[in-house]
Amino acid sequence: MGRKIEIKKIEDITKRQVTFSKRRSSLLKKAKEIAISCDVDVLLVAFSPANRLSKFCSQNRYCIYEPTKIPLRCACYLSI
Amino acid sequence: MGRKIEIKKIEDITKRQVTFSKRRSSLLKKAKEIAISCDVDVLLVAFSPANRLSKFCSQNRYCIYEPTKIPLRCACYLSI
DNA sequence: GACTCTATTTATAATTA
DNA sequence: TTAATTATAAATAGAGT
SUPFAM superfamilies, alphabetically (chains A, B) (predicted)? Predict the structure, then answer.
């Protein structure tokens, strides 16, 4: 899609953020589509380099925990 | 992509599994691409209707817990 | 940042083997 | 069934606003 690129870290910050924004939305869209059409539950989480939770996609049955004191993040799925 | 379809549950089992297989691999590919090019950590988990962990994508710092006795699954990210 | 445009590449539904 | 092929639609890099 678009001009052909090699997949490696985009060094230009502005360009990287633009690409992230574009790809994030389409990744979310595709996760939703496979969840619906294939009847699966999907969890998608992205953490930025600044360690912020950038995004998640769910079937409304996931929860994301972000403890502040330990270097651990949990995303839990309730399969009930 | 392909013939235009409405996004809804595919009722035909064979067709649904074929679609799942195709979409799963491209979703994983895209998750890896955004992780690399945008320097973010991504976690992607899919649970099948049979409650099996179908897939996950990571930066090698995620771990998936699958307790068998409780209806809860955890995907944990170590941000160290 | 957040949109728009579009040329180009990728993804994929349907089909065929 | 599982794997290619094909025809078509979607995603997106780059450029401009």
Answer: SRF-like
Q: What positions of strand D are covered by protein, i.e. any atom < 7 Å from a CB? A: 1-2, 7-15
Total Cβ atoms within 10 A of residue B17: 13
Whole-angstrom Cα distance, residue A65 to residue B25? Answer: 27
Residues of A in contact with B9 (CB under 8 A): 36-39
B36/A9 Cβ within 8 A: yes
Half-sphere exposure of A37 toward its Cβ, with a 13 Å CA cutoff? 20
Supply the Cα-derived Rg of chain A in whole angstroms.
15
Residue B4 pLDDT grade (very low, low, confident, very high; cuts 50, 70, 90) = confident
Q: How far is the CA of A25 from the C1' of D5 (A)?
A: 30
